[in-house]
Amino acid sequence: MEKKExxxxxxxxxxKGDKATQEELFSVLKLVAxxxxxxxxxxxxxxxxxxxxxxxxNESTSSLFDGGFWLNTKFSPQKMIELSKMDGAxxxxxxxxxxxxxxxxxxxxxxxPTHETGTRxxxxxxxxxxxxxxxxxxxxxxNEITLYYKNIRYLLxxxxxxLRRANENIQLLDKQRELYDKQVEKLxxxxxxxxxxxxxxxTLLQKGRIILKLAxxxxxxxxxxxxxxxxxxxxxxxxxxxxxxxxxxxxxxxTALDLKKSKFxxxxxxxxxxxxxxxxxxxxxxxxxxxxxxxxxxxLLSRTSLEDQEISILIRELQTLSTVxxxxxxxxTELFGEEKGKxxxxxxxxxxx
Length: 353
Hints:
Helix content is 54%, strand content 12%. The protein is α+β, with helices and mostly antiparallel strands. It folds into 3 domains: 22-156, DNA integrity scanning protein, DisA, N-terminal domain (YojJ-like (1); 157-291, DNA integrity scanning linker region (Ferritin, Up-down Bundle); 294-353, DNA polymerase, domain 1 (Orthogonal Bundle), CATH 1.10.150. Strands 1, 2, 3, 4, 5, 6, 7 and 8 form an 8-stranded mixed beta sheet that branches.
């Protein structure tokens, strides 16, 4: 039996506030992803060589509408494509399951600033800003579909172009993961000798953060692709698996500040700023590239079966990774019991081998 596609609802999008959040943008992009009824309607109207204007109703939109005629008919791509041939706007219900009105004149306040030049796009942007709703303008001349939601203007790219860019980004992400894994191996060798190396830790943090930033950017394209991006989404998750956890543990070992604070500042850095070693050192609480801080070893010890609380006890008792790596069987038994102590010693041997 063929699966029926239901139009997603916009009712979950928060209409409060003047600026849209990233989560709200993602919610909007899901509504127009390839495979949805709305995207089929938009693409169909664009291919038909006619412009179009569409607005989703909410509690603030009634004052923006003038004229038109009432339809109250179930939404379908075919109906919307035909109605887009009229000059006025198409008004969808709040849940986007019905076409409520067609050929409506939009009358948002002309005092609302806009960077658009065309009449249709000006009306769409002002309506979106004034009512905090979704408005979509289709330009036959520029062959473009533009989304407006609150303060956001977002140009929809063709599916083929999105797929091309997403594939390029996946390849870049894959290459960055290779470089990242090599830096992990280098830091492993240094720390297993009982030494700390701030410069190498910073290099690893740089590589890890670049991967996570690339994944964040790619995720927007994958959300916009909808079902078309399923395989690429799975590949992205495979590539980035464990990177965030490993990066957090490096910060936990090397930061002289609070972990949450260091992580927050790292996430705020741009691509260019991440590449500056001094910026990362500052985020970790250092003025230069030298640290006298003893290495606790959270990153390596997290590869064992010990719980976080047990690792914390171990580091508090023995203070340095060097001492932990050479823990005696008696001390391990004292801390964790005979069975778990022996298992922990065996795990350390495997990590060091």
